[in-house]
Each structure stands twice: as structure tokens, then as C-alpha cells.
Amino acid sequence: MSDPSPLSYRLRVHHRARHVRLRVTPHGELVITVPPGFDETALAPILARRADWIRDMQARQARQREADPHGGGLRPREIRLAAIDEHWQVHYRPGAARILHAMPQARTLRLAAEADDTAVGRALRQWLQRRARAVLPDWLAEVSAETGLRYRSVGIRGQRSRWGSCSARGHISLNRNLLFLPPDAVRYLLVHELCHTLHLNHSPAFWQAVARHQVDYRAQEACLREAATRLPLWVHAI
Ligand SMILES: [Zn+2]
Known about the structure:
Structural class: alpha/beta
CATH architecture of the largest domain: 2-Layer Sandwich
CATH superfamily of the largest domain: Metalloproteases ("zincins"), catalytic domain
Bound molecules: zinc ion
Distance between the termini: 29 Å
Oligomer: single chain
Strand content: 15-25%
């Protein structure tokens, strides 16, 4: 049985879209992508046909938000950066001068209560970016010195689908979300990218090089894959 109340949605026109695509975001919003020139009145029968699926997806996303181990999807109450053993409290205060004010001594973030979820998410991502930039390049330099594997430069980004990458010129790009992982998994990722300075592929020779510096690399690889599914909702833009 589908609920008779009308579904609300956000319409996105995409110039490369060939047909109508429905997606439910982690926040439960229905996003409909359509090709240019699409007649919106044609949506009604599509929505009627997919109504059960949409509500199932929204219910599933709601359950996931509740189960979010970081204590709240979009407006977290606490943030655990396992990689560097930091546990931050987040307070929402009305009338704050800035959207985000970090108090490192108290491991506390103060956020403006009036800011909407999008602004809160953006401010938290900027803060995480600064935290990652303060920590990950030095960590990479340490592992480089320890393993003797050299790289040219390092950058920090917020990639959606990868923890890191290494270019042919030896530029290593690291995902700021590595801060949510256990330290061993971060070290493994650093070793992995450094080994790409020797082999720009995942050949047997590459994995031999990885194994030389990180014996339990298979377990760590599984840890990275699993952790990617447990990141807090705010780490990516909606
Ligand atoms: Zn790789």
C-alpha cells in the first residue's frame, strides 16, 4: 500500500541525462534527474509506479540515519577522529557570530544554531579539511622516511570514492575522511600510495612492495572498504 500523500521532490535537469532517474539522498530527499526539455507533467505516472520503492528507500535511509555511529547525521553532537584519537563535542548555540568556532583546547566545536544543514555541513567539512591538512602531510612524510619511498608532493581533498591516489609524477592526494579511520588503516593507505611511486598499477609486484611494509595489508584493505560505508552523513555535500 502506498501512502496517498503527494511526494515532494527536487528536480534536476541534466544535459547528458537520457531518461528520468530517481534517487533518494541519505537525508531522505527524492531527487529526480531529467533530460533538458522534459515535460514535468509526465512525472505523475512515474511517481505513482515507483511510490512504494521511494518510500522503502526513504524508510531505509531514515533507519541508517538513526543508526549513524557518529551521533546524528547532519548535525552531529560529537565527532570521533579515530586516526588521531580526538573526540570532539559539538554544541549548537543561537546567536553565534560565526557558523563554526573551534576551541581546540576543549575539543569543542561551537556552531550557529540558526545555520541550515547545508551551511553546517560545509563548515564542518572545512574544519575537517584544516584538521587533515595539519596532520596527514606530516604523517605521510614520516611513513615515507620510514619506508624509504619518496614522493613529490601531497594534497588533501574530500573525494567521494577513493581514500587516496598517486599520480605518475609522484603527487599523492589524500582523503580528509581518513581521519575517521583507525591509525593502522591510515598507515596502510599511506604505504599503499607510496608504493604507487614504484608501480602505478595493482600488479603482483605492487602488492609485494606493499606487503614488505605492511604485512596485514589485506585486513587493512577490507577495513578501508568497510569504513567507507560508515562515514558520517555530513562529510559529503548533499
Ligand atoms: Zn592503489
